[in-house]
Specification:
The chain is an all-beta fold and 172 residues long. 2% of the residues lie in helices and 45% in strands.
Length: 172
């Protein structure tokens, strides 16, 4: 867009459509200002892209589900925030309900996991939506917050152990 002009400053915005936003790119903003005797002064604008994988998950009853959020193509380590089914941020201090593994950053990829403890899972109405959320730490003020949602479903079957004692050498 032509942007806006305010107090001797003009802001122009280039919007890159999703179909063209598939790889890291460099765009140039060219400025020509007759009053400042500037002709085709170019400034590079970098657009780094990344992908987030966070898929729906089904688990058997009685299992503690571990949700995995994988981010690839990062320029540097970026924190991942987990959002629970009530749309609240999950705290890594809430160890009675969740286990967060922030993961490590390696060659542009970060994998973070959230394990939901059984005591918490029993109080969650299922299916339930959980989210992983991140924002570029390289460009935090100009990059949007990215939120990926997945649905957690409990399968109607599961393994429920039944303990007992029996007499030696008898069928059980």
């Amino acid at each position: 867009s032509d942007g806006s002009y305010n107090s001797n400053s003009q802001t122009t915005t280039l919007t890159v459509k999703a179909a063209a936003n598939t790889a890291d790119s460099r765009y140039f903003c060219a400025i020509t200002a007759n009053e400042w005797l500037e002709t085709n002064r170019q400034t590079a604008v970098i657009l780094n892209v990344f992908t987030v994988e966070f898929d729906d998950r089904s688990v058997a009853r009685g299992a503690e589900p571990t949700l995995t959020c994988t981010v690839s193509g990062l320029s540097q380590n970026t924190p991942i925030t987990w959002i629970d089914h009530e749309n609240n941020e999950v705290s890594n201090l809430d160890t009675s309900n969740f286990v967060i593994d922030e993961g490590s950053y390696f060659l542009g990829t970060k994998v973070s996991t959230l394990t939901i403890k059984l005591s918490k899972l029993q109080a969650v109405p299922l299916p339930a939506d959980f989210k992983c959320q991140l924002r570029s730490s390289l460009y935090p003020t100009t990059s949007p917050i990215v939120v990926k949602k997945m649905t957690l479903t409990i399968l109607p079957f599961g393994v429920e152990p039944i303990n007992k004692e029996v007499e030696k050498s008898t069928d059980s």
